[in-house]
Amino acid sequence: MNKTISQSQKIPYPEERVSTRLYAKTSPMYCSNLLQSVAEATHQLLTNRDFAVGVNQALATLGRVTGVDRAYIFEIHPHPETRELAFSHRFEWTKEFVTPQIHNPNLHNQALAACRISRWYEDLQAGKAVRGLIRELPNDEREVLTNKQISSILVVPISCNGKLWGLIGFDDRRYDRQWSKDEEACLITMAASFGKAIAHQQTTETLRQSELRLQQITANVPGMIFQFLQRSDGSQAVPYASSGCRELFELEPEAIQANCGKELIYPDDREAYEQSIAVSAVTQQPCKWEGRIQTPSGKIKWIQCASRPEKQLNGDILWDGLVMDITDRKRAEEALRSSEEKFASAFRSSPDSITISTLKEGRYIDVNESFLHLSGFQRHEIIGHTTLELNIWVNPEDRIKVIQQVQEEGAVRNQECEFRNKSGRVIIGLFCAEIINLEGEPCLLTIGNDITERKQAEMRQRLVQERDRLLAEMALRIRKSLDLDEIFNTTVAEVRSFLKADRVFIASDTTGKGRVMAESVEPNYPPIMNWVLDDRSSLEEMRTLFEANQVRVVEDTTQAMVHPAIASYYRDYHVKAAVAVPIRVKGDRLLGALIVNQCSGARRWEPIEIDLLEQLGTQVAIAIQQSCLFQQVQELNTNLECQVRERTAQLEQKIQEVQELYELKDVFLHAVSHDLRTPLTGWLLVLQNLLTANGNEQKTIPVSRSILERMIQSSDRQLRLINSLLEVHTSEVRGFVLQREPVQLNSLIQEIVEDFEPLCVKNQAILIDQIPSELPTVKADPLQLRRVFENLLTNAFNHNPPGLRMILKATVEEQTIRCTIEDNGVGMNPEQCDRAFELYARGSQARRSTGIGLGLYLCQQIVQAHGGKIGVTSSPKAGATFWFTLPFAMSP
């Protein structure tokens, strides 16, 4: 709406003297020109079709005639965000040397309070003009306008529909102009014309928007809005048809207006259409008609026409109405009608029972013949009554669960429920349900199938299978176990579980009294294990009955005629029903009875249950017989087993003695064959050489000292070998006997190092003691522990060349003391490491072995006797580390 006139519309104002100009503004000619210009501006404002152009032309006319530098219009309105009063620059005319302000953003949505001219708003709202010289205005107003280079100003209010709309203002920037009363009056009149033009523009815009909205509504209506006119002479016309006719009739609105569209009506439906128009014209009631049309493309559509008549002053009748396409609805209705017919047919003829009831109350609305036949009710006894009133549900909670499930999931499928017919017989039904709506009310459609016989057959089949399983397990248990207590207890427990009985027990009268052997009882009832039947007459009665292989069946103890002792038993132990079968093998004596009690109430015992008990009675009798036979066999075998054990012990002792002799012989022969023969062979060679060298006739043969020393050393090795063999034999037969005492390892090692000093000198070896003095004492045999160190050190000397370096260490690791002997000798391969501690294991030639492998074997036996472990880590040419551990458990 913000507009400014172009430069071509601006008329230059000639420079004049101030006094001449002031005089001209008050002359009669000026006043006449002003009035004419106001009239011209009003004419421009009201006659121009473009409102903005008319306003700008009017401002230009007023600006030229008044001789001002700028004329403008501001709108006063609520701020779009803060809703406080603000003004916005809408229109403007300026002289050519004045810069337009129409696009100045500071003059749009400017808060009125921020401009410090609130006094002006009060005067304008009162219908007063604001005029004067800027230099005479109050300071805050003068400061604002002086910055805009304005010398004098005239502001006139613009009212629209009785309310202040805005203002029209005139600025003079070069002269101190005094505005006359005539000028003010003329411009106020012009402001009123502006207000009327603005009101007219607003009304026009509102009407245009309303028409646009009506067109949009009409275009979006699913159908055609129309006016149908029937004149008093009987002629008809369509004054108006909306654009919806294009989609509905496949015709333009003009074509509908030209021929009323009657030719599109299906021939069979025209009479009804004409009749509905005639009736509405006579009764002046709304006309409603449904029928078919055939569009130019050949489509058949169903339409619904609804209109209201209004009689005109000239006698004509005008209908305003709406035509809608109802083809889809008609098809849906037809499909629904067909579906309803099919449903009704299926509902009536279905072999399954079908009902329709209200969801909330369960009140029956309709049922089919199958339901009536199954329930035993007549139709009038069912319809209008609820399921609770008729006591249909065996468990009313089931209906609550079904309703809850169908509301949550939308349907219930194949759910088994128990129902009760009119006679009280319980029926098991396979039940399906879902929610349907009948006349706006949620209802429950249910379909049920009587599966009572099937469930009974399944139950009988399960009972047969369970019975066969129980009998098979019983037979298997009897074959595998001869423990009568286990067999009895398992039997009564499984029978009670199978029969869902309250008490099952096995009784025997082998001692002349009825005694309970095993029992399984429901915790709510008293046990019978302590009960004894010592009444001879009642026992004799039971024996006579069971000897005849008969079964005693009592379905209701209150109606049974029994011995007083039995009646007392029924009363004391809450027995309401009972069945008892004899425990005996056909043709054999009676061993007892298997008895079942029902304490919760009377019970009808099924034939399959009695058959199970009879077969179990036979199985229990077999178990008792087998137990007796097994006991006899055990007694017969007792003596034989004692004899066998005695002979076996004697034989084992002899075998052990022979084995020990063989082992001793093997050790001895092995030692002789490997090591004793070697020094003897050496002696033989030395002696033969001596004889050969000195001749056969010489009686005395001189022997050198070195030869004697070597023979002594050889004899010493043989003596040590024999001692080692004896120790091995002792350890194998009797084990090491340790004389434990507290031992300080560092002291023991010091003694060993001192003892080995001559041997180290002889072999040019170095022995380093790195055993810490703060090691805890261990409880061990110091002699045997010393032999371990001596054997390991001797082994190192014997299997390495001179110049050996050995280090003794000891550390505390994982609850043990770990001792190591490291050397830098020739080392060992993995195979030698694995076999180092085996009996008679020999080293390779590289290790210069001369013994029979007893030293390391004895070390292992001693360490293990102390509860420790021993081992070696080595590789060829990298030395060897022998280690062993002593556990802290040996510590004091």
**Structural class category:** alpha+beta
What is the residue-averaged pLDDT?
A: 81
- How many beta strands in the DSSP annotation? 30
Biggest sheet, in brief?
7 strands, mixed
Percentage of residues in helical conformation: 40-55%
Task: Please characterize this protein's 3D structure.
- Helix 2 runs antiparallel to helix 3 and helix 15 runs parallel beside helix 19.
- The protein starts with a strand and ends in a 5-residue tail after the last strand.
- The protein has 25 helices and 30 strands.
- The longest helix is centred in the last third of the chain and has 88 residues.
- It is of the alpha+beta class and 892 residues long.
- Strands 1, 2, 3, 4, 5, 6 and 7 form a 7-stranded mixed β-sheet that branches. The chain has a 6-stranded antiparallel β-sheet with strand order 20-19-18-23-22-21, with helices on both faces.
Task: Write a brief caption for the model.
With 892 residues, this protein is of the alpha+beta class. α2 (28-47) runs parallel beside α6 (181-220), α16 (484-499) packs antiparallel against α19 (607-694) and α23 packs antiparallel against α25 (855-865).
